[in-house]
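To whoever picks this up:

The parser on our side crashed when reading a file containing two proteins. I've narrowed it down to the boundary between the first structure block and the second sequence. Both blocks are reproduced below exactly, byte for byte. First block:
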Amino acid sequence: MRSRIIIVLVIAACILTTWLFARIYQELLNAYEQSGRLMDIEYSWLFRLLLNIGGYLTVLLPGFILYKYLDKSNYFDKIGNATLLSRALNACFGEPNERLPDSVKPTKIDETPSREGAELAFCFTGLMGAYLVWGLLQEKIMTQNYVMPDGTLIKFNDSQFLVFINRSLAFLVALGRLLSTKQALVSAPLYKFSYCSVTNIISTWCQYEALKYVSFPTQVLSKSCKVIPVMLMGKVISRTKYELYEYVTAVMISVGMVLFMFGSHDDYAVSTVTTMSGLTLLALYMLCDSFTSSWQGALFTRYNCTSLQMLCGVNLFSCALTAAALAQHNTTIHSLRLLQHPVFAMDCLLLSASSAVGQLLIYRTIARFGAVVFTIIMTLRQAVSILLSCVVYGHQISWGGGAGVSLVFAAVFLRVYCRHRLRRRRNINK
């Protein structure tokens, strides 16, 4: 009885902490919005990012306090799952072992090479289609003006709101699918998903925000070169070992994309100034995105999560965190009004739908083939998206750009060939 009273008091203290941090966050946000000087400087994105993180802390900090109390007091050993409250707390924080496994590898399923190839082709085609649509709509929403009924031009600039819409639809899709198939909603403690959720929404926000400072081709270049940080993050988080050919092909892919980008000439890239702000945002995007995919790969292996469970768990936190930040923003009302514009609403709907489908295929790919294979697929998607952008917007590519694309595809085929030979050699040695 005493333990139950204490846990109720702790939860009440966490709620009070949430309220206090929300008030502090609101005051800081009002001070920023009333200071025209901070909003107009080049590095205003840094203040917005810090404010966003402050909004996330209104949810994360009370949760962390509650987790530390449950861990220090051995709450689950004393109480068990006797009450609804204890079962809910166990679902959120019930994992006693915090450390991830020393070696994390993609989930292997015994199947024929033809079935594995068909699965890889399905993931590849789905990711290509979903994210080609997503990339075109992302550029349109963040860079184009929308004509209102009164003839005025409005440019959308609330990256946080766009992240919230995308994650909300993805969560509803995953939740609806899990409920309809009567699967377990989660197979791991909920707090485990918060790590990759935070880095996921920060990386997405940085990606949208970077389009205000750098050209779309520059952003594509940064995504294409992230196979190397993904491999490094895999070594740090999961202590994954990679073969020499994997490092060589990763460098070839990055060099190929650099050649491709420097061989691409268009008015949009010339007219958009590449600033330190944009480059910093892209670096932060790559860092957070690399951690996200590596952490998700670790969760897939340790808890045997399904793609839908991962999609549901990550986006549940993403919705909560972005909603906590948006609830205090005065610009949120402006973004909601812009949703009344039929073209903008349709763009947001298609963007969110393609993002939801893409996320589901991301988790499926990571679970079956690992984070590095997923990154290579997405790298190829970048090359195709540039080609599509050239067709849509009339950009031109030099012979050097064409050589870069060829180098990327050569690296991918070399990787497949080396992987096949290595497997064959290991089977012979057995």
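<<boundary where parser fails>>
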Amino acid sequence: MNTIKILSYLVIVSFLFSCSQDKKTTIITVKNTLNFERTSEVVEINKTTLHTKNISSNIGIKNIETGELQITQLVDLDGDGTMDQLLFQPKIAGNSEVKFELVNITDAEKPKAEELCYSRFVPERTDDYTWENNKVAFRVYGPVAQKMIEDNVPGGTLSSGVDAWLKRVEYPIINKWYKKYTEKTGTYHEDTGEGLDNFHVGKSRGVGGIAVKVDDTYYFSKNYTKWRTITTGPLRTSFYLEYESWNAAGNKITESKTISLDLGNNLSKFATNIKGTNTISAGLTLHEKDGQVTGNNKSGWVSYWEPHADSEIGTAIIADKNTFNGFEKYDVEAADLSNAYAHLNVINNKVIYYAGFAWKKSKQFETKQAWINYLNTFSKQINHPLAISVK
């Protein structure tokens, strides 16, 4: 009888231990060390952190205190078919922390969210690559557009500058505006209530294109040569661009980058891989030179606020304190070559900066001071990122 009792006891203990193992939970703690609420920052949880080879599509994130399921997005970073990152965008009050739990959910339980962060290659308009979120939109130009200029074919564009599309609605406009172009039912160069593209780039840096300064001259690449969409979704769009090697006064420069844009942000993130230089300069076109260049070396930003058609626009470049190395107003006679430049340190062949704009007519930022306040707040956030711990 004693042997039977012992065996029964061991079976019960093993069963209870097994149950406790099955109910093991993963807790994500997000801490905000700044004294204001943060709502527009995307938290990345990598598969290595979760000790898994592929993040399941049925994983959800629940606020432990409120029980609310968060909107999430899965990202396949390298295009191999497995999910490498889990994204969510929490609301964290000033000087506080919030705990979240990883939970298994069904498709029916997933919070629904519109795909506001979107990007794509646009073969129907030469070979633009265009991206947007609920605040802003941008585009860059590809090799076909470059060759058209080199072959004297009308309609091409030779520029590695970044174009700004001035939208004033929160819903997506990229496909709608290009459809106007392809079906000849209208033009995105006229504002019919959603905004328009009337931002001239030319050879300039537009909103965040890079250059390498040697002595008193700025050198830059031509159009991108390769592209790859990484992700689109409710919280982030990101993509990869590659450029043909270019010359900066005898220095061979190789350049590629991943650009991302998160929900609710006016600034795109440019994560650039570059060899052949220890510094780069990211620029903002000065257009008619009738605006004002301002900057803050301590907060790490430069901005240009200018009259623009029947409104005003502010552009900006910002980087963390280890990257930002001053700014300069570069004013020359040659067309499109005058830019406000942010000088940026290249660290281990990498440099990260943010570039974007605010159009007064969109009513997101109606004064220059409101835009500057946004830049100073953004600086605090990138220099004091949300602290993430996973147990």
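After patching the parser it read the second block fine. Helices lie at 2-22, 143-150, 174-183, 368-383. Confidence is low (pLDDT under 50) at residues 3-22.
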